[in-house]
Amino acid sequence: MIFIGFNSKVYEIVSHIPEGKVVSYGQVASMAGNYRASRAVGYAMHGNPYYGSVPCHRVVFQNGNLTDGFAFGGKDVQRQLLEAEGVTFTKDGYVNMKKCRWDGTPST
To answer: pLDDT tens, 89-108?
Structure first.
């Protein structure tokens, strides 16, 4: 896919998150060139026109919490999608960021 602009950079980055991994909104913002734009990343994820190609369910808060505003079915659906990929959660219901955070390295 070819993307243009900030949202496009966001979609490009998120499209490379491997199955079973997550990133925070802030990580995506930094990777897209504006570390202060985590809220803009959230807006881009909420309006994701490429659902299926751009796995927005793999973007979570920095502490591993899921968003109530997940555009494609809510927090429970986001968790189900992540668990189906092998993402683990703490007993408090947060993504285990130590284990599941993607470092941006391209998957092979």
So the answer is: 999 999 999 999 999 987 76
d(CA 32, CA 7): 9
| Residue 5: count of CB within 10 angstroms of its CB | 9
CA atoms of 9 and 2, how far apart (whole Å): 9
**Cα distances (Å, whole numbers) of residue 26 to 5, 16, 73, 85:** 18, 16, 23, 22
Report the alpha-carbon distance of residue 73 to residue 104 in Å, rounded: 26
**Which residues, at least 6 apart from 101, have a Cβ–Cβ distance to it below 8 Å?**
21, 22, 23, 24, 27
- Classify residue 28 by burial, with Cβ atoms within 10 Å: 0-12, 13-18, 19+: buried
The active-site residue out of 31, 56, 66, 100 is: 56
- Tell me, yes or no, if 56 is annotated catalytic: yes
Q: The whole model's pTM is what?
A: 0.91
Per-residue pLDDT tens over the stretch 21-53: 999 999 999 999 999 999 999 999 988 898 889
